[in-house]
Amino acid sequence: MKSAIISSKRDDSVYDIDVKSYRYLSTTSHHKFVPLSINSSSKGEVSFYDIDYIANGRKMKCKCPNICPSFLKEKPAKQILYGLSGNFKTGMHAIMGSTGCGKSSLLDILANRKDRHGLSGQIFVDGSPAPSSFKYMVGYVVQDDIISETLTIRENLMFSANIRLPRDVSHVERVERVIKVISDLGLESCADTTVGTEFIRGVSGGERKRACIGMELILARKIFFLDEPTTGLDAATARKVMKCLSNLAKQGRTIIFSIHQPRYSIFKLFDTVTLLSEGEMLYHGQAKNLLNYFSQQGYSCEPHDNPADFVIDVLIDAQERPGALENLRLAYEKSSMHQHVMKLRKQQFIDVNLQIRTSRKSAKPTISLWNEFYYICLRTLKNTFRNPSLILSQIVVSIILGLLVGLVFFDLKKTTDPGGSQVLHNVGLDYTTNWDLWKNFFGLSMMTVGLFLLAYIQLRRIKKTK
Question: Which pTM does this prediction carry?
Fold first, then answer.
């Protein structure tokens, strides 16, 4: 049976220390801490224990439900993840499962990209609790492309270096990093090629995805998270992207990603596999031991069947058969894999040196606001001048608006009245009517601003939870 849904009033954070669980950790508010950083000396180990996640855990109560917008009304809480625990070290780590099993939710939680309300559990990095600024210390590649389509790959990577690297990194060092990333990702042949738009032909889908990876790789992070890195790619291109990630993992990085039914040539690149079904963990271990484990549970893979397809079919079949999913969950909890994770959990929770390494300070962005403004304006100018259709549309809109405004004063008689009464009289307006028009305009403007504010609030809520 699944654990009951935790009360939405609970405000525990998976990135804060649970004082009751740390028996040897006393009050630390008087200590001077050093912020945790993910640098080249880091092992890149990520551990998580007892992760529960409830969607809509924080509700916004509306006093007038009949007139409230739909996004302000209370929604029923739904538990997405149930007590997940695991450990990721250097290598390739795949999170797999059927649609809606919680893959992306777990990935976002580990990367500190989820709203903390509705979360409980603990996350460790190299044996220390992950700070609230953890998302600035790791790389995260989203499913959709985030690169500018009118810039070249080199310009996109340089923009990421300029906007995100600390101020103490010189321009020469940034250029060297860009060159190294291009070399590591095998993008030398297309580095100076425009990414491409719907109307302008550019690089291929695989090169575009590798460029997105390079946007994060430019920061030299030790830990990387990727959400469905092969989505929208053909089999050969997906193989190249995953092979590129495998090469990065061999350089000592921790690559954690969600993926849906990869082909066998990609599956062989995985070091570990984590299987989720309906928010519960059913396997967390070596990829090479996956088929042997499920054969012990009574599920045999045919000789020429893809292991990734096989396990997904097993999970879907277990969801349809009463009691089958529960049996798989119990089998995993009794397995040596789960016992090993619990042993690691015990060792980390009783570490008496935890308070020395723990930091509650948050890493702030190291680049100034003016530098960000400068580089964003520079990129916007390049996008504008390299997109003729955009320039043409802006010119046409400006001309049309100018003509509409000019029609108001077309064929008016000249007047020297400083108050403009003759002009208003010529167009059939008096001062009272003119003032009413301004009041209506002001009211319409305030309504527009209010609608934009409501849309902004909704977008902020979506951004926090996705």
Answer: 0.73
